Amino acid sequence: FIQNAWKHQGANSEAQFGVKASSIDNIGGSTLYGTPTLVPIWSHELQTNRYELWAKRGYFLDGGINRSIGTQLSAVYQDLDSYFGNRLFTGKERRLYGNLIFQDNIFNTRHTLKGGLDANSFRVSQQMWENDGSYDGLITGIYGEYSYVNSPDGEGFSMILGQRVDVLRYYLPFYVPRLHLKYNSGPWAFRGQASRSWRIATLGAEYMGYMANDRTAVFLGNQSGQITPPIETSNTYGIGINWSKDVLFKEMQWYADVFYTQFANKVVFDFDGSTDTLLIGSPGGSYPNVQERILYSPYSISAQVGGQYELFHRTMIKASYRYQDVKQRDLTAYYASGAIEDYFKLEEVILNVPHLIYLGASYSGRKGMGIELNATYNSSQRLPLVGYAKRSPAFTMLNGQISKEGRAFGQFYVGIQNALNVRQLNPIVGGSLPFDGGFDASIVWGPIMGRQIYAGWRYDLKFQE
Q1: Helix or strand or coil: residue 291?
Q2: Domain assignment present for 122
Q3: What is the extent of the structural domain holding 375?
Q4: Could you give phi then psi for residue 263, rounded to 5 degrees?
C-alpha cells in the first residue's frame, strides 16, 4: 500500500493532489494447499491491484465567507483475479469522475446555496458464477442544495434541502431529493431526515463471500449468460434525539435514533431452496396504494439508543442497544409456485443480528496508562432453511487491552480478543468432499478463531518541516 498527497495554499485558492496504489494477495482453503494429494482439495486465491489519482482545486470568491467555486477530478483502475475452488471470479474496473461545485450566500451567511454538475464514466468487466456481468455507462448529474442556520452557535432551527437529477442511458432520469432538519435547545438536539437514493449494484465485488460454496447460481430474470446490472432504489426516513449535560460535575450524553428504509428494488441472495442452489434476483413491483407499498416492500428498520458518562475520575462508561429488522423478497417461494401472492412475500435476511448490546469501560491515567474493557452481545441469527439449524446461538464477545504511552518510548500494549473463547465450531459444511455437492463455507455467523492474546509496540516518527 502506497499513498502520497500534495497540498498547495495560495492567497485566494487551495489545491490538493494525491496518488494511491495498493496490492493484495490472499490465499485460503484446505491446510493441504500446496502439497500433492490423491483427491482434489478446495482452495481460494485472490489477487487485486488498485491505482487511484485525484485532484481538488478551489477558489475563494470576494465578498465574505461561504463563497467559493471548486473542481474535483479522480481516476481509478482496478484488476482482480480470484478463484473459489472451481469457481472463477475476475474483474476489471475503470472509472473517471469530474465535479464542478459552486457555493454562495443568499441575503446573508444564514442562507447558503450550493449547486453543481458532475459526470461519472465507468467500465466494469467481470466474470462471476459462470456468467458475464460486464457493464459500462456514463452518469451525468446536476444538483442543488439550500441550507439555513438560525444562529452561528447552532442554537435554534437549521435545515438542508437538496435535489439532484441523474441521467443514465437506457433509463429514465433518477430524481434524488433529501431533507435534513435539526433543532437545538440547550442540552437537547432533535433531528429528522428524509431522502431518496439509487445505485448500481456490483454483484461480484459486493457479494464475493457468497462464492465460497458449491451451489449453482440461478439468476432470475436473465435468459442468457449475460447478467443485467441491477439498480437498487430506496427511500429512507429517520428521526433522532441527543441530550448532553453535566451531572454531578461530569458530562453525561445519551442519544436515540430510528431509521426506516423502504426498497423499491433490492438485490436478493436466497439460500433457502436447497443446499446446491442459490437464487439471485432483484424483483421490483408496483403497488396500487401506499398501504400495500408499506406492507409488501422490502425494508430495513434500525433503532439504537446509547450513552456515556464519566462514572469515576478518568473512567468512561459506554452502553448502547441496537435493534435491526431487515426483510427481503422470498425468491424460493415464488420460484417454486409462480403465484403472484408469493412474489410479494417477505422473509428475514439471513445472518441479520436483530439485537445487539454493547457495554464498555475505559480508564485514562495521568502517566499514559490506559485500560479498556468491552463486551458485545449478539442475538441469534436466521440461517438458511435447508441444511442448517433454524437460527444460530446467541453469543457474547469480550475484549480487553492495557497500554502504556510515553514521549520517549512510544506506546506498548497487550490485550485479549474473544476472552470467552466463543467459536463457530463447524463453519464449513461438506468440507471432506468439496466438489461432490453440499459444500458451503459462506454461512459464517460468529468468530472462527478462538481466544487470542496479542502484544505490540507503536512509535510515531516525527519530522521537522
Answers
A1: helix
A2: no
A3: 369-464
A4: -100, 130
